What we know:
By secondary structure, this protein is mainly alpha-helical. The chain has helices spanning 7-27, 35-49, 70-75, 84-106, 115-128, 130-138, 142-157, 166-174, 180-187, 191-211, 213-221, 241-247, 253-276, 280-294, 307-315, 319-328, 343-349, 352-363, 408-414. The chain contains 19 helices and no strands. Helix 10 packs across helix 11 (213-221) and helix 15 runs antiparallel to helix 16 (319-328). The protein is globular and about 60 Å long.
Amino acid sequence: MNPPRTDRGRLLLVLALAVAVAAFTATVPLLRDWFDLRVYYGAVNTWIHHGGRLYDYRVPGTTYGFTYPPFAAVAMLPMALVGLRTAIALSLLLNLAALGLIVHIVTAGAWRRHGWYGCALGACLLALFEPLRDTFSFGQVNLLLLALVLADGWLLGTGRGRWAGVGIGLAAAIKLTPALFIGLLLLAGRRRAAAVATAVTITATGLAALVAPDASRFYWTRALWDTNRVGRLDYVSNQSLQGILARLGESDRAVWATAVLLVLGVWAYRTRRALARNDWSAAFALTGLTACLVSPITWVHHLVWLLPALAVLTRAGHPRIAGALYAVLCTSVVWLWFDDASGIDGFLGSNTYTWITLGLLLRLPVGQLPAERAFLTRSTRSTRATPPAPSAAAPETAPASGHPDPPSGATATATGVAAGPGRGLTRSPSNDPTGSTRPAAANPQSSSSRASS
């Protein structure tokens, strides 16, 4: 089928695709009802306006409360000045801005060459991506963190590393998982950027300790080590190594630690190969994949960290593979095993997104991107070659006696100089977001249901 060639045909195709996307999102995915944003908003408001303790807050009717480091609550303090609806609107705008920055970076600005038609098609495709859908409908912070980290990667890859590390440091202070990118900076020998990131993380954490000393003490001594506060490890949305083991009934921490060490070893080996070839795009993509795998809990919406890897795969000349993986990540397929993840089909199907993440870690092309195609590397622009200088050894031809001087072009040819310009160029159905306390419902795919991540 040939794509439409007129603006009218393109507009009709975009409208039809938008309707199909809207129908899909209204019937297949789980609706999240900004559950996580309600957690943030309720915890901050209770803390600021009612003198409650930050980590004691629970969303009414659930057992879920604030689980991030105290600095995240400090960063969210402006929510205490507005109503919930305004906070939801601001969350949508911030996530849209972060997504715009991410798309600009991972496409290396190529989106501008496709005009309104290409951008509209791209927006429809992005709207189908389950981690993005969940991030928006939960009111989550994943896109903001990814934008901070990629901004640092762009600074490093384009030789503007003076402020590199600030974004990674802030992201690690808001949520611990991005701290693995400090390890990437150390592997790359970027000690200054690693020091900046570490200093920013420590400073932000210290600021939170001054603002909320009791909350900081509780988080770092108790809440951090209690994964039950976040949700059930075996919940199908947990697409990490720990999630696989929990669904298998394996609770031995030593087994999980061994798996984590193996994955970190693969990450270090493959990342060093990428860095040796100055492939910052692959290095950052591999680190995002690894962070998703080694985190004890990686909800589906955390998998926005796979976007850089899919971009690397596409730009390295494998768009069909990237498209196939992207399509699977749009399907909500893991929720088919919401009630029962036992058996071979449960082992394979309920961990589908984890298999994709692991496969990308093992097989992502490394060092194959030309500089002009790597989204975290300064593009190399070919410059026009200058015409060669006249050879000093070339004899000067004088006009014969009695003849007029030859035209300038003829003289240039005779002396070996190219004439003229340009020549010579060489959801969970209940209100329970993570399924940690309530039984599974019969129809987790219902559009009126909520399930967390």
